[in-house]
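note to self — DONT lose this again. spent like an hour looking for the file last time. sequence + predicted structure for the chain T wanted, 279 res
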Amino acid sequence: MDERLLSRLRCPLCHSSLSLKDQILMCSGCQETYSIYNKIPRLLKLTEIQSYWQNYFDERIEKKGDSLAANSYLNQGHFRLLQQTVLKVTGNIKDLMIIDVGCGTGHFSFPLVTDNYLVGLDLSHKMLQAAQAKGFHPIQASALEPPLADNSFDLVLANSIIQCLADAEKFLAELVRICIPRGRIIISAFNSQNIFFRILHHLEPERKPSLFLHPLKKIIKLLSKQKVGILGIYLLFYPLKFKKKFINFRKLQSIFLFLASSFVIEAKKIDSSFSSDAK
């Protein structure tokens, strides 16, 4: 296993460092062991809801293969608009430690692989194998309990995953925890206030898996509790392929929130404390 990744891995139970011996990861604290399968460390104990999502995404890649379609919640057009927006916000970056939380097959962030060190975290081992083939350093783990050291990544990406999680506050706190001070966090999700999406979700509840549609206002409020600064809020309007940037959430007009299909939040960790954990 790559030493840069191993040095950042932590036991999901006690958060102690891990050592590698004979393709087994052992915790230096509680002595728990974790397996490595197809060069992918498995650092999780599945809950009922996690098993549901793992099976859901395993089935998607089995049916659709290593494709963009396997990663799309709505459709491929919406996926591309979201990807283009996030990559534009990310900018021209190089030599950064990046993690894509909920990376799927890696289709979303793979353009960043060439010039950066890109870690992919996901529940689905099958999707992680596809991401691994694209140059990702994969970890099979829970997004609510990422087995990673504090202050480990320059850039934290979380695309369309918060809507799969009931506990948005814990998830956001974990994203901030693993981000370095002054590092960036980029989050995207469906817009719960979109009037058409709400009607569709109500009329066809079985069409998609159960989602937790956290309002943009709620996510902004939760992020403010985590000592991060909001650099920009981007509302996306699909299928119009139109997007609009806001700096101040208070200036968002209701009409935009009713019509936006999804949003992207760019934040910066401003907490000055720094742990030696991930040096």
